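Fill in residues.
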């Protein structure tokens, strides 16, 4: 078993690095990584011990909301040496505007030695239509060697005020393409939950998406 055997999330007050240095942001969120296996000399099979505590970095982003926070750790996904952590309440600068939008996003990490290194934040372009869209509310990742599959759900995606929800699927490395998928009816909440399963031998993968508001 590897370091990704179990991931859970909680909310707390933490010291977070920002452009101005280190400051307290209420209910920022954490991601906790646990491990079980011979490397930790676990006394019993299936017993997990805390390995890492991952805190977010918001350098270059607008101030985050104090009352609810960005909710970093609301969703997590891991495969191989890859880790994704969602922050669906993340506040972003409005595109071509002077305000800020609570649109959400997620961060990608990779395992480097004995620690998780931040690759990037995936936040897209925030417009007024993205308010409350909850990007990164659900996540999925699949490491298939030559390429990796990354999924992110946005259940509050507002398509002409229909709130159908959406899921972004991206294939990285060797394949290098992405696609967007949407709910079929108003208030579907398409992308509220998701899962990805792959067959590395066949080179194929399956995506399962929850739409708890759907009425078909």
């Amino acid at each position: 078993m590897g370091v990704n055997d179990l991931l859970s999330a909680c909310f707390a007050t933490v010291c977070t690095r920002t452009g101005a240095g280190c400051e307290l942001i209420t209910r920022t969120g954490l991601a906790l990584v646990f491990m079980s296996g011979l490397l930790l000399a676990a006394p019993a099979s299936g017993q997990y011990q805390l390995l890492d505590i991952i805190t977010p970095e918001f350098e270059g982003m607008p101030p985050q909301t104090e009352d609810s926070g960005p909710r970093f750790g609301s969703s997590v996904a891991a495969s191989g040496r890859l880790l994704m952590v969602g922050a669906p309440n993340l506040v972003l600068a409005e595109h071509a505007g002077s305000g800020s939008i609570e649109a959400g996003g997620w961060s990608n990490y990779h395992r480097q030695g004995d620690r998780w290194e931040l690759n990037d934040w995936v936040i897209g372009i925030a417009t007024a239509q993205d308010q409350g869209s909850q990007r990164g509310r659900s996540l999925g990742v699949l490491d298939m060697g030559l390429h990796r599959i990354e999924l992110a759900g946005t259940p509050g995606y507002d398509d002409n005020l229909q709130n159908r929800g959406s899921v972004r699927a991206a294939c990285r490395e060797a394949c290098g393409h992405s696609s967007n998928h949407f709910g079929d009816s108003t208030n579907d909440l398409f992308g509220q939950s998701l899962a990805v399963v792959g067959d590395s031998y066949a080179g194929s993968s399956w995506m399962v998406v929850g739409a708890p508001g759907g009425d078909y």
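The radius of gyration is 18 Å.
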